[in-house]
Amino acid sequence: MQWTLFLVVLMGQCSFSTCSLYQYYFIRENKTWDEAQTYCRETYTDLATVSDMTDMRRLCSSTQNQDEAWIGLHSYPGRENRKWHWSLPGLEFNDSDTRWQSGEPNDAGPGAPPESLQNCVTINNQLLYDDCCKQLFSFFCFNGTKQSNTFHNITTPMTWPQAQNHCRHHYTDLVSGLDQLDHTVVSGSNVWIGLFRDTWRWSDGSNFSFRNWESLGDLVDGQSDKTCATVLNTAETWSYDYCNERKPFYCYEDNLILINQSVTWVEALEYCRENHHDLVSITNANDQRWVQERIKNASTDFVWLGLRYTCTLGFWFWVSDEVVDYQNYQNWASNITSDDCDMSAAINTGNNKWFKKPDNETFNFFCTKI
User: Fold this and answer.
1) Measured between alpha carbons, how far is 75 from 81 in angstroms, rounded to an integer?
2) Using CA of residue 352, residue 356, residue 362, residue 365, what is the dihedral sign?
3) Alpha-carbon gap, residue 132 to 217, rounded angstroms
4) Residues spanned by CATH 3.10.100.10 within the chain?
5) Residue 20 and residue 51: Cα distance in Å, rounded?
6) pLDDT value at position 148?
7) Are 249 and 36 within 8 A, CB to CB?
8) Which residues form the C-type lectin domain (predicted)?
9) Global pTM?
10) Helix, strand or coil for residue 294?
11) Least confident of 66-70, 146-150, 155-159, 200-204
């Protein structure tokens, strides 16, 4: 009876379908990119950050208009400012994780002109080579579902952006990350994978690698003076322009707060409900990516989530009123079968996986504002 009552108290704070970790706002005022950035930081959180196509649809559906509008992506041209990214959202590139062929990446050698810069990557004999994104190669697509992951070798030669668009339209994305590369056995010919580099950075400092350019030219570091990104709303793609042009823009409001205090799970729950709204619930991959960006500032190795196990009823549940089972989004470090009482979930700051932890341990925690 006590556990059932506790469960009722914990759940039902907000519907997971209506709660969001961030919200977009369309501002129909014409400003330069810098003016728009200042406005968003003073009024909301920052210029809009976009992490995947789900965000793109949310962004464009927030206004019924045909305007081109600023988002929070800015380029810092120059070879020294380029940074490697995996195409698949949610994966971060690590310099120590790659398998470059000896001498790669080499940009076609010293002194190569900007138009020959090699900002996209192929694989051959499990080794990586940088190449010009306009080259034509076959490529590997990854398709991830709840049931299984599959890999598809597309033999039709395409440029890197064309290959990326094909994979995103028909599957999930170009193969990304070392785990996926192990499923791509290539010998004798180079094949595109989902690794690229560019000079673009998000205004809020996020490391999201998602790009949705309308044309190939945006991927090539040609030293252009057009260094601020826009959304083409009707096409749901991006372009770029001179930053002193005046356009409407998108801001976002962050509803996620990292609390750098070490407390038990119940203390974290009480704090969030007394001072904000609730402990955070992660019910989809988009929310997971958003939490991963914010967890980098935590002072403990784990951070409490709003996920708890009830041994009386025998299941894990989010405080936002969703039971966790095989049909729902999950990111456990391993298969979780638990008969333990007094267990809650925390996200690891190293690998971003969820772990069950005794809820009397003390960690930082995430609250939501709404």
Assistant:
1) 9
2) positive
3) 12
4) 2-19+255-368, 22-76+200-253
5) 14
6) 79
7) yes
8) 24-142, 146-252, 250-368
9) 0.85
10) helix
11) 146-150
Cα gap 61→247, rounded to integer Å:
18
Whether the per-residue pLDDT at 12 is higher than 70: the answer is no
Nearest one of 24, 13, 167 to 87, comparing CA atoms: 167
- 368 class by beta-carbon count within 10 Å (0-12 exposed, 13-18 middle, 19+ buried): buried
Query: How many Å is the maximal CA-CA distance in the chain?
Result: 74
- Which of 300, 254, 301, 305 has its CA nearest to residue 278? 305
Q: Which tokens in the block code for residue 226?
A: 């057009």
Residue 7 has pLDDT above 50, yes or no: no
User: pLDDT at position 216, please?
Assistant: 62
Distance separating alpha carbons of residues 12 and 3, to the nearest angstrom: 15
Angle, alpha carbons 51-133-162 (nearest 5°): 65
Q: What is the architecture, at CATH level 2, of domain 2-19+255-368?
A: Roll (3.10)
Candidates 1.25.40.10, 3.40.50.150, 3.10.100.10, 3.40.640.10; CATH matching 22-76+200-253 = 3.10.100.10
Q: Are 16 and 320 in contact (CB under 8 A)?
A: yes
21 CB-near residues (< 8 Å, 6+ apart): 254, 255, 256, 280, 287, 290, 291, 368
Alpha helices in the chain (DSSP H): 2-10, 33-43, 53-61, 160-170, 178-181, 265-275, 285-294
The overall average pLDDT reported for the chain is: 86
Tokens of 66: 């045909």
In one-letter notation, the amino acid at residue 35 is E
